Amino acid sequence: MDSLNIAGKAYASRLLIGTGKYKDFDETRRAIEASGAQIVTVAIRRTNIGQNANEPSLLDAVPPSKYTYLPNTAGCYSADDAVRTLRLARELLDGHELVKLEVLGDPKSLYPSMVETLKAAETLVKEGFKVMVYCSDDPILAKRLEEIGCVAVMPLASLIGSGMGILNPWNLQLILENAKVPVIVDAGVGTASDAAIAMELGCDGVLMNTAVAAAKNPVLMAQAMKKAVEAGREAYLAGRMPKKFYSAAPSSPTAGVIGKAA
Fold first, then answer.
1. What mean pLDDT is reported for the chain?
2. C-alpha–C-alpha distance, residues 149 and 7, integer Å
3. Inter-CA distances, 155 with 59, 136, 251, Å
């Protein structure tokens, strides 16, 4: 089985999906089921997973017994805030160590602050967290995060929530060529073709939230994303034909055809 391996665990699905921005937890559950995802990411600052005892909990709709939770630091703008948030997540989820680190640079673009991200990553790795890290598409910084000990690097395709797709495939390819840990595109995917392109480039997976949650039919879009990720991965493994500006070679052989010289 061509599985995605993160921090020593194998996953059949290469689609990771967020749990925010849906109209309610029931829609969240149905979209996740349709996506086939096994890893779900949750914003600790925005989603109730037990912090508020008298409110509906995501844990009931999306049980941790069925899915691998990936608590994230969405909404954090400093290393200290991010580290504090993930320490809380570890307490709420009974010692859970797999986390998604993201430290944002500003509230308008939501572009990552790589200085603070590197600082937080160093602290979290030292504290025993298994860190999957949202980052810019800078191949040097992506490699540095791997060297720090992050278990996956997650470069953006374009800005969070933009739906602009992959704007710089060349940088992604540089990251892929040098990485020894999974590379998962995070942020910017807008539709199924974006996910397929990411996988065709050789990315190990795709994480998305807004592309599904903000669709007119989130459950149907989740189903489409599942197929796109699978098709993109298969195309990558198959190896596409070389690109040619022009070729006179016919797609069917002509040897032995009546009227053709042998």
1. 91
2. 11
3. 28, 5, 38
pLDDT tens sequence across 184-203: 999 999 999 999 999 999 99
Contact 205, 14 (CB under 8 A): yes
Catalytic center residues? 100
Q: Which residue has the tokens 């995605």?
A: 4
Angle subtended at Cα 37 by Cα 1 and Cα 62, rounded to the nearest 5 degrees: 135
CB distance 97 to 130 below 8 Å = yes
Q: How far apart are the first and last CA of the chain?
A: 44
User: What is this structure's pTM?
Assistant: 0.88
| Amino acid making up residue 258 | I
**Residue 57 confidence (pLDDT):** 76
The rounded radius of gyration (Å) of the Cα atoms in the chain is 20
